Amino acid sequence: MLKIGCHVSSSNGYTSMIEDTKYIGGNVFQWFTRNPRGCQAKEINPIDFSNFLSLAKEYNFGPFLAHAPYTLNPCSSKEEVREFALDVFKKDMEILEKIPNSMYNFHPGSHVGQGKEIGIQMIIELLNNVIKEEQSTIILLETMAGKGSEVGSRFEELKMIIDGVKYNNHLGVCLDTCHVFDGEYDIVNHLDEVLDEFDRIIGLNRLKAIHLNDTKNPFGSHKDRHECIGKGYLGIDAISRIINHPKLKHLPFYLETPNELDGYKDEITLLKSKYIG
Question: Which of 106, 116, 217, 221 is deepest in the core (most CB within 10 A)?
């Protein structure tokens, strides 16, 4: 079965995310635990949360992927920004530990001129302060497009972060198809080679999720602008190869394309028609 879903809003509560996912024909979803451009997390309604857990089990949904706010930057040059990242991480882990089969995805950050080596060490420091040996939530480093001073556009950078974390058995990677193509990994013409490189450097056992997005930008542009499925430089043929690849097809795919729910519904219908199973 194709594990597919999209980014859904949590503004109407956790149960609504299940309902929206059912509407679009999905069985997994991603959401923000708090305002993606700010820091406030909405207070959880205990009844709504209990209903969500019951429905998720009934429909066999998951895994669930929470996304950290975009403002989170653990390798900022400003101490207050790093402290904010640590605080958000800790609070979000408290929420996710209550949700079975959950993962937490974050952008590694931007070193803002300090250099990638310093940035990577700061990311490692945050993760070592957050990750507990007994936790169940898997934390995912997202592959980035390499714009500006972003850390994480090269597999080697993600590997350095993983190797520096004490309890790295709780770490994985979320591969964003738009980001890696923009970041000079040619998944259109050389998907097998890219996956071999990922396996050699990081290990495919670390790959836990895929952000399935087309891109508005040509190969190697380092711009990170998502496009609807089949309407960008990846194209539907390459995306079909991705969801059917024997090394990827078992993973959950999360759409982050520029769509509303009906658009996601159409994309999921299209992808299901291309899925061989």
Answer: 106
Q: How far apart are the first and last CA of the chain?
A: 6
pLDDT single digits (tens) 250-272: 999 999 999 999 999 999 999 99
Environment class of 244 (CB within 10 Å of its CB; exposed 0-12, middle 13-18, buried 19+): middle
Instruction: Give the alpha-carbon dihedral of 187, 227, 244, 96, to 10 degrees.
Output: 100
**What sign does the dihedral 143-145-150-154 (CA atoms) show?**
positive
Q: What is the rounded distance in angstroms from the CA atom of residue 151 to the CA atom of residue 117?
A: 9
Asked if 266 contacts 24 with a C-beta cutoff of 8 angstroms, the reply is no
What is d(CA 271, CA 254) in angstroms, rounded to the nearest whole number? 12
- Residue 17 tokens read as 């995310």
